[in-house]
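REVIEWER CHECKLIST
Item 1: Sequence provided? yes
Item 2: Single chain? yes
Item 3: Sequence as submitted:
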Amino acid sequence: MYEIRWHGRGGQGSFTGAKLLGTAAAIYDNRFAQAFPSFGPERRGAPVLGFNRIANQPINDRSEIEQCDTIIILDDTLMSDSYLEDLKENAKILLNSTKEYFNKKIISIDATSLAQKILGKPITNTAMLGLFAALNKDIVTHNACIMAINSSIKNAIAQMNIELFIAAYKIGEDITNEKF
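Item 4: Structure as written out by the authors:
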């Protein structure tokens, strides 16, 4: 079973990102998947968690995920060094940041600039989904993610989100070719 935890702030799309990943895996890649949120104060800007489990067999565990295969952070102000302790062996943190991190467990991209350029808004969930998909092709496929975005997001903005996903996916492929 592969376990992912999303960190973001209310309004940034962390739970929507988790839902898109769950939809891609379950509906379009025929895997078993869960996507669920954990909210604190339910207001824009408050820290929000999203979770995914993806497996090839039914998933019975419904608890929050503490030990992760991947942690996806949509807002670098939420980054904490303590998250490194929450990673399983060989796991990674995917971080939206303009800062470069010199820790081999952290992969950062400037998803905010990509989102601003393509969407006109700093909503980075589909960019971070693209990065995740490029680095984890054995967990979810490119096509499944595009179909999930197309079926789950309003038509007026689905194409822009697909474009954002593809741009980040290409960055993820470049990272894979350089570092792994």
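Item 5: Key structural point noted by reviewer: The mean pLDDT is 93.
Item 6: Recommendation: ____
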